[in-house]
Amino acid sequence: MSVEIIHDNKCLTAVITGELDHHSAADIRIAVEGELERSMPDMLVFDMDGVTFMDSSGVGLILGRARTVKQWGGKVRISRPSPRAEKILKLSGLSGLIAGKPTGKETAK
Amino acid sequence: MKNTANYMKITLAGHSKNESIARMCAAAFASQLDPTIEEVSDIKAAVSEAVTNCIVHAYPDSIGDIDIKMKIIGDDTLYIKISDKGTGIEDVDKAMEPMFTTAPEDDRAGLGFAVMQSFTDSLKVRSKPGKGTAVTMIKTLRRRGRNGQTD
Asked: Which residues of B touch A (CB under 8 A)?
């Protein structure tokens, strides 16, 4: 598991790679939480394209960080979850946080 | 010999790094039923939730044993039992309610049982406070290529 933090203006993106479970979520939480408190972004994006496994610990990680950014009115989005991760997100009622999927037009390119 | 169903029993120490090892073992055992990628992923998620529950809730202040037993029923069904000798659950029905958690400060979403329930065909939870908890899951696999070629 690894997490890379990208700052872009008032948006912070956490690019997560590998398996996202209770064990790895603890390290991701520490890395992301530190950056959040430093930069207080308007938007936190979890880029999940590189996530090869996720269980409900991923949901807990996202909910916990959503609580953090809410303190200053920030928002959370989830980008590019795998169909497997999406199944868990749906179950948890978090699918509304998934960033707009590419339209048919974009996919056709 | 022919009628003895295949089974596996492993005991893991309740270290969080063993969550991924438990998933890998479960996936490896299930592979003999030729599951789809989605079925493997469901099994891994369900096992991961059960094992995480043991680590977080059954043994909050210690490292205890987590017993995983898997067996094949018939030619397409997987039986998974994950048990601990930890704190146990006072009210199993309450614990199984989606979004209910006793550890919100630890980023727990309260969805462990919900994932186990929706990713398998049957989930049974037996628990005795002070004695431990046993979670039993059963999942029948579609099996790729069972009727010639399905995929």
From this structure: 16-17, 19-20, 23, 38, 41, 44-45, 48-49, 52, 55-56, 106-109, 111-112, 114-115, 118
Asked if B45 and A55 come within 8 Å (Cβ–Cβ), the reply is: yes
Phi, psi of B23 (to 5 degrees): -65, -45
pLDDT confidence of residue A107:
43
* Active-site residue (options: B39, B108, B142, B146): B108
Is A64 within a domain?
yes
Cβ–Cβ under 8 Å, residues A44 and A74: yes
Q: Which ipTM value was assigned to this complex?
A: 0.90
**Predicted TM-score (pTM) of this structure:** 0.91
Over the stretch B114-125, which tens digit does the pLDDT of each residue have? Answer: 999 999 999 999
Fold annotation for B7-140: Heat Shock Protein 90 (3.30.565)
Token digits of residue B150: 């399905």
Domain count, chain A: 1
pLDDT digits over B78-101, tens only?
999 999 999 999 999 999 999 899
DSSP H or E stretch at residue B23:
helix B18-30
Domain that holds residue A16: 2-98
Domain spans of chain B, in order of start? 7-140
Q: Which two tokens stand for residue B103?
A: 């550890």
